[in-house]
Amino acid sequence: MTYNASKAAVISLSKSLAKELAPHNILVNSVAPGSTLFPGGSWDRRQRENPAQIAQFIKDELPLGRFGRPEEVAAAVVFLASQQASLVTGACVTVDGCQSRSLI
């Protein structure tokens, strides 16, 4: 519950700031990554501790059948910071392979 409330707060704050700062040509966006696997991270640790449980989690919760990678999240951030996103403001870019399908 706390995680969902925090995520909703970030999205709401981003939208509010985007509207407030738009007249100053300042863009505000957020990124909502899904479960992301990287060396030393919590999913990496859990996968080593209980591979069967994580395999079941992947099957049940990750429609693409895998964790996200840091570079996939980074690509969204790079896009938002680029000139190609000059009209994008107040957006929350979800980078989760449809993991959040049942939450929204």
Automatic annotation (TrEMBL):
Q: Give the Enzyme Commission number.
A: 1.1.1.100
Lineage: superkingdom: Bacteria
At the highest ranks, the source species' classification is: Bacteria, Candidatus Methylomirabilota, Candidatus Methylomirabilia, Candidatus Methylomirabilales, Candidatus Methylomirabilaceae
Q: What is this protein called?
A: 3-oxoacyl-[acyl-carrier-protein] reductase (3-ketoacyl-acyl carrier protein reductase)
Q: Which GO terms describe its molecular function?
A: 3-oxoacyl-[acyl-carrier-protein] reductase (NADPH) activity
Protein family membership? Belongs to the short-chain dehydrogenases/reductases (SDR) family.
Q: What class of enzyme is it?
A: oxidoreductase
Q: For this UniProt entry, which residues form the secretion signal?
A: none
Keywords carried by this UniProt record:
Oxidoreductase
Tell me the Pfam families matching this sequence: adh_short_C2 (PF13561)
